[in-house]
Amino acid sequence: MEVRSRSFIAQPAPQALTVALRFKGMSYRQLASATGVSKTTIGNLANGRASTCSPETAACIARGLGMAPGDLFVLKAIRAPETESEAA
């Protein structure tokens, strides 16, 4: 029997990213430059247009703000899609 693999997504904690940016005095553009994450992605996460991102993106953003990912994001386990052999 195969074990289904799990993956994770990161959800921004409500308003945490916006508050952290203000506290650090950084703009989306400055954080994007420091992290390699696009300004659009950062803006979408900060204003709620995007509700999730990869754990890697969350870690980059948190590192750019000098914070732990858990201060800004909540990791959620998601199940990988079943293969045909698992569904049968």
Automatic annotation (TrEMBL):
HTH cro/C1-type domain boundaries: 24-72
Source organism superkingdom: Bacteria
InterPro entries in the cross-refs: Cro/C1-type_HTH (IPR001387), Lambda_DNA-bd_dom_sf (IPR010982)
Coiled-coil regions listed: none
GO molecular function, one term: DNA binding
Pfam families (alphabetical): HTH_26
Name under which the protein is recorded: Helix-turn-helix transcriptional regulator
Native species: Rothia santali
